[in-house]
Design a protein that fits this description.
Strand content: 5-15%
Structural class: alpha+beta
Radius of gyration: 27 Å
Order of helices and strands: HEEH
Number of strands: 2
Number of helices: 2
Shape: elongated
Helix content: 55-70%
Distance between the termini: 92 Å
Length: about 80
Amino acid sequence: MTAARDARMRALAARARFRAREARLQRRSDERANKRATNPRPVEGRDTVSDGGTTKTALPSAAAAALARAKAKAAERGSR
């Protein structure tokens, strides 16, 4: 009888933990959704740069360096 009671108590405790976790995850999800709705972010991994009234996305430094190398290579090929 005691084993059955212990098993039931463990099951009830597990159910309470599950419900608390689900409520916590839902609350966090709602908070993130509200944050996104009030503060839209630019494309992931990119910053915005203001350029005399226009706003454009800036490349991450590694991508900007790769683009600069590619442009230099293309300019070198074009001058031959």
